[in-house]
Design a protein that fits this description.
The protein is an alpha+beta fold. The chain folds into two domains: 39 residues; 147 residues, Glucose Permease (Domain IIA). It is built from three helices and 14 strands. The strands form three sheets. It has an eight-stranded antiparallel sheet, with no helix packed on it. A three-stranded antiparallel sheet has the order 1-14-12, with no helix packed on it. The chain has a three-stranded antiparallel sheet with strand order 4-10-8, with no helix packed on it. Helix 1 packs antiparallel against helix 2. It is elongated. The termini are far apart. 33% of the residues are buried. The N terminus is likely disordered.
Length: 230
């Protein structure tokens, strides 16, 4: 669902809003204006909750942006059984009054999706039930896993993209109705830029920076010989 002009309200909220508006008109017709007012106020609240505002994506190619509006719950080292590696996990609790739209933390290709119970070890709270996980890979082969819908009370997440598609950094990638928890699993050498308790904004705030090893500069042999002669 990328590209083109998008409405300010996510389309997943249209059904809720439309049903509330229709109920309001029905209540006005049968019971009067006072009976309809609460339903129309609820309509305004739903429009606010399902808002899908544009976000300014930072010019940081190696940056990992927040996938959702919310609060950082924890930053810890775990074993990522999705990719069988050591990883750093950034856990985020979505803001119940924030936008429900989720965004891609990096630019790259979607390698694979999962829909299963959590397979990340070390979660003493055992929060997770069914959820979606998305494996993203940059052109430099950095692997990031975005887990959406963590939490026993979370509704089934909606994913906008399919495996094999490319996605841009900060691009809309899904939606979790009425909020929930997310996890971002990063390479073990990633430089983390947030801490527990930090508030983050989807697509705009940077959670971490990917680290690339810089190859040593190769000095031509002729230059070495010239330097030795001088």
């Amino acid at each position: 669902m990328s590209g083109g002009v998008r409405p300010y309200i996510a389309r997943e909220g249209w059904l809720f809003i439309g049903a509330t508006v229709a109920s309001g008109f029905a209540a006005k017709f049968y019971f009067g204006l006072l009976a309809a007012l609460p339903l129309w106020l609820l309509c305004l609240l739903l429009a606010y909750l399902f808002r899908d505002p544009a976000r300014a994506i930072p010019p940081a190619p190696l940056g990992v942006v927040s996938p959702a509006d919310g609060v950082v719950l924890s930053v810890d080292r775990v074993h990522d059984n999705y990719l069988e590696r050591d990883a750093i996990r950034v856990s985020i609790r979505m803001n119940r009054l924030g936008s429900y739209v989720t965004r891609a933390p990096i630019e790259g290709k979607i390698i694979q999706h999962w829909c299963k119970p959590s397979v990340v070890e070390g979660d003493a709270k055992n929060r997770a039930q069914d959820h979606y996980a998305m494996w993203l890979q940059t052109d430099e082969n950095d692997d990031v896993v975005l887990v959406m819908g963590v939490g026993r009370r979370a509704l089934k997440p909606i994913c906008y993209h399919h495996s094999g598609e490319r996605i841009g950094q900060g691009e809309r990638c899904g939606l979790i109705r009425f909020g929930g928890y997310l996890e971002v699993l990063l390479p073990a050498n990633t430089r983390i830029q947030v801490a527990e308790g930090d508030r983050v904004t989807a697509g705009s705030d940077i959670l971490a920076s990917l680290i690339h090893q810089i190859a040593p500069e190769v000095i031509p042999e002729a230059a070495i010989q010239a330097a030795a002669e001088t």
